[in-house]
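hey can u check if this looks right to u? its 197 residues, i copy pasted from the old doc so theres a chance i mangled smth
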Amino acid sequence: MHYIKAADRQQFTFIQVLDDLVGPDNPVRVIDTIVDAILEKNPQNFSDKGQSPLGRRAYSPGTFLKLYIYGYLNGISSSRKLETETHRNIELIWLLGNLKPDFKTIADYRKDNGKEIKLLTRRFREFLRDQGLIRGKTVGIDGTRVKANADRSMLTAKKIERRIKSINEKIEDYLGRLMENDKREDILDELDVEDGS
């Protein structure tokens, strides 16, 4: 047969700089820059773990905040799936600097720091708007039903408040799905352990 042959896995050397694998216009670079800038401006608003010189070092809040923003933007709503992606997804490997927190640590951060995650998503949108990266005038949709209104006075303070409330509800929903998925997966793990005993 006349097929292209794959390289022998036992003899293939993979030497490449991780930064070269993530293009200069990749959205993870935006996530990285914005989260770092938000944390730099507001360090007091985020987790204070990692202050003790004793024990294992803690992950930076930025690690989890970047992970959750990435997960939200890519529809990943399970701590176990987020953990899996930290091992195989080049974008996440780059974004987290090759850190690979386990699913329990990811879930615990969400449980302990839900307010910080919500605050970050709000600051993230504000940062994008302030930097001129978004204007908030165009909404992109795909297969979604939305209410249409072509009236000149379609944007009122009340409607803006409803939209902000809707965005916050979506964030709550995402965090809720993460929590439910974690609970479901924990139950399945317990059942597997009982079956294996």
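Residues 27 and 94 are 12 Å apart (CA to CA).
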